[in-house]
Amino acid sequence: MFTQFKNIDTAFKHIKRFSIFLILACVLLSGFAIYKSFDLVKTMQSKVYILANGKAIEAFSTTRKDNLPVELRDHIKTFHHYFFTLDPDDKVIQNHIAYALNMADESAKKANDNLKEQGYYNNIISANISQEIEVDSVSLDINQYPFYFRCYATQRLIRSSSTALRKLVTQGFIRNVSRSDNNPHGFLIQRWETLENSDEPLKP
User: Does one domain contain both 69 and 169?
Assistant: First the structure.
């Protein structure tokens, strides 16, 4: 009879151990399932599907930091393009300068006012000069904020008889601002100045 009780007690201990093991296994499995579910949701939220010509194209969202150098360089190039690409047309000049000034602070406005006072834009119109700019390179320091940059570019002053080349080097800092239609990158150039603007040989 005591042997029978002993067998029952032993069986109860085995069942107890098995039950505890089963509960722990269920808890671990549930935890793993919850973790994978959150991970899957996070992965799916980082995907964007764009419908183009009846086809779904998958795109991936990234943080701004991943593309920061690319966006900064494009902002700098866009600003210089609109500030320095001019045609002998007062309306074109005003539109380009106005768009450029949306991407910079009062330092750019001050430079623009100086050019006006010197009659620079009037000379472009009266002499029928078209001015173009090609940004050769942009160096960045994103380890400090506001971000420092130096821009190296080549200006072309196109006349009916010749083309004058000018070497242009500018520098400044960039800080974050809200994005808008006039400033899609959400950056603002500040303390902008020209370091060099020297003539190069004329091309016939």
Answer: yes
